[in-house]
Design goal:
Blueprint (H helix, E strand, L loop, with lengths): L1 E5 L3 H8 L1 H7 L4 E6 L27 E3 L2 H7 L4 E4 L6 H10 L3 E5 L6 H14 L3 E4 L6 H12 L5 E11 L12 H4 L1 H5 L2 H11 L4 E7 L7 E7 L4 E10 L6 E8 L3 E5 L2 E6 L2 E4 L7 H15 L8 H20 L3 E2 L1
Parallel strand pairs: 1-2, 1-4, 2-3, 4-5, 5-6, 7-10
Antiparallel strand pairs: 7-11, 8-9, 8-15, 9-10, 11-12, 12-13, 13-14
Helix pairs in contact: 2-10, 4-5, 5-11, 9-11
Length: 333
């Protein structure tokens, strides 16, 4: 199974460096080509909110392109992995899938709900697999939290708080993150991780009520209350922090019998009897999602963990949050 990478910035390089683990899980998989519109990315490093990796890369074994259409024309590919700016997600994904090639595209699904639905329709029409990189569904601590919720180990959820704080992403190609029409701001880019996990863990909320700031760009921070009949759920995404501020994801979930928290590198449950350190086994989430995606291709199935139809709902919720923030009122879903 031959595959290619489109987009070789920070996240593209993350997928490249997970190639070894993917091949160990699926020995018949081979990366054959890499494409980026900026040729210098093949020899330079790009920062992300996870930090900057200064290790050198040997790309001599791969065909390198600066035009993805040329790459698709010349290479015989079974699937493509794309890590490109959000406003290009639907354009590239639909082009790839219309050629009968399976598609893994980074989050968020698309810049609009219409474009996200068009991606899903292209997958179904061409009978190819589509997965969006909503990696929290594979992240060890979040995966463990989902299992705790589903098992009822600590009873029902009473309240859940999620947060994702980041320095401003000024490292993007042509500063695209700071253009709300291209990125959707922190609400659609950063915060969408927690939106997706809320959707995954609790289902689609009845309504959302959001407030946002527009300090460095449109919707650069957002706080949302999700309406459920039996619990309070709040999520906060913010990328207005200064450059030296560390990327900080966290959650605190109050169950009937315990409070489960991931914060400052600790994953623990607080009960009346004391503090219990929790286990979160699993491989790197970016690798785990790729292993699942390739398995779906081989087994001709839609992922039960991360189906693209779920991601359409996540996109709908996130866009409703942006609307709520702009209108200053609740938006019913």
């Amino acid at each position: 199974m031959n595959y290619a990478l489109i987009g070789f910035g920070g996240l593209g390089k993350v997928h490249f460096k997970n190639m070894k683990g993917l091949v160990e899980a699926h020995p018949d998989v081979k990366l054959v080509a890499i494409c980026d519109v900026t040729e210098s990315t093949f020899t330079t490093n790009v920062a992300t909110n996870l930090g900057e990796d200064n290790s050198s890369l040997d790309l001599s074994a791969f065909n390198l392109y600066t035009d993805y259409k040329e790459m698709l024309d010349k290479e015989d590919l079974d699937f493509v992995v794309a890590a490109v700016p959000t406003y290009l997600h639907d354009v590239i994904a639909i082009d790839v899938m219309n050629r009968g090639i399976n598609m893994f595209s980074e989050k968020p699904m698309a810049i609009s709900l219409e474009k996200g639905k068009a991606m899903l329709e292209a997958s179904e029409k061409n009978n190819v697999k589509l997965m969006i990189g909503q990696c929290l569904r594979f992240w060890p601590e979040y995966k463990a939290l989902k299992e705790i919720i589903d098992s009822g180990k600590y009873g029902k959820v009473i309240r859940a708080n999620f947060a994702r704080l980041s320095p401003t992403p000024i490292w993007g190609w042509e500063n695209w993150y700071m253009d709300g029409a291209k990125s959707g701001g922190a609400a659609l880019d950063l915060h969408v991780h927690d939106v997706d996990f809320v959707n995954y863990a609790f289902g689609k909320p009845k309504a959302v009520t959001s407030v946002a700031t527009n300090f460095v760009c449109e919707h650069d921070s957002i706080i949302t209350s999700y309406e459920y009949d039996d619990k309070v759920v709040i999520a906060n995404g913010d990328w207005t922090y200064n450059g030296s501020y560390p990327f900080t994801p966290s959650f605190t979930v109050r169950f009937e019998k315990a409070t489960v928290e991931m914060k400052n590198g600790k994953f623990v449950a607080f009960t009346d009897d004391g503090e219990e350190e929790l286990e979160a086994p699993g491989v790197d989430a970016y690798l785990a999602e790729m292993i699942e995606f390739v398995s779906c291709i081989k087994e001709d199935r839609i992922s039960s963990i991360n189906p693209p139809s779920d991601t359409v709902v996540t996109l709908e919720i996130a866009l409703a949050e942006k609307k709520s923030a702009d209108l200053g009122e609740k938006v019913v879903l």
